[in-house]
Amino acid sequence: MDKLEKPLEVWREELSDEQFQICRLGATERPFSGKYNDSKTPGTYRCVCCGAPLFDSAAKFDSGCGWPSYFQPVSDTAIASLDDFSHGMHRIEVRCARCDAHLGHVFPDGPRPTGLRYCINSASLDLEPHDA
Length: 132
Known about the structure:
Blueprint: H1 8-14, H2 17-23, E1 43-47, E2 53-56, E3 60-61, E4 69-70, E5 79-84, E6 91-96, E7 102-107, E8 117-120, E9 125-129
Antiparallel strand pairs: 1-2, 1-9, 3-4, 4-8, 5-6, 6-7, 7-8
Cofactor: Zn(2+)
Keywords: Metal-binding, Oxidoreductase, Zinc
Binding site for Zn(2+): 47, 50, 96, 99
């Protein structure tokens, strides 16, 4: 997958203010406020910035944390991870591997088979429903 890079000014024009704040500046939406938190629609969750496939609805689960949660991405190459030491704690930030959009964080308290919980901002995602 080719890396997609754009200046911040271009991202600011292409995204809503909320999407820009979250995806390009690392903000977080309020818990239980995102449009995909309670979604049960079958489909592929894509990066709102570049359209890369990130998560499949089959990997989505209700973690109760207030953000859409997934136990695995669509592939090992879809997500990039990095250490995040903000807010006085150590977490693992996850980003879109193609365009470096901030998605959320991953935690080691998810269900089988991975034991992971990808806690993702709805504003960083665009759901492409599966054909009925």
